[in-house]
Design brief:
about 200 residues, mainly alpha, about 0% strand
Amino acid sequence: IPMVILLVLIQLYAIRQLTHRMKVLKGNIDALSTGDADLTRRITIRAEDELGAIGHSVNRFIAYLQSMIGEVTQATGAMASSLGDLHRTSAHTSEILMRHASETDQTVTAITQTSSTAESVAQNAAETAAFTQRANEHADRSRVVVGEASNSVVALIDEVASATRKVESMQQDAQRITEILGVIGAIAGQTNLLALN
């Protein structure tokens, strides 16, 4: 009978530890699903079992999502820089065109200066076209990265839902084990009473 009691105590301890680990894992997954996640955090893996495998999977996905968001941020920054260059070039071109308009009524010397200005305008127009092309390329890359991030979020939601279902199933199993251990404990108690009689 002492062995039965010891076994029951060990089982209760194991179930309590399992339930605690499931609650911690579920809390981390819930934080991700509600949008309050810190992508620098990782789930602590305490054992290489089914819960550990789920934790590894979630950690890998968090790292992938963190990298994806970093790429989006980098692409957005590059696009903003290109747009700033384009704005400055456009302002410079506009200034040259205004100066060119004011010089068209001057002498032959002014006409020569206008020719030089026209060449500068052409060069700036070519630079503007190049900046525009680069901005479009950055925008295309950003759209691709954002699309991938959107798909990743959908996949994460699916994985979180699946993990939640697994955790709930394991909680039900733990509850059944607890009930069985309760029955075993009751039987052990009755056996003790019979032995005393």
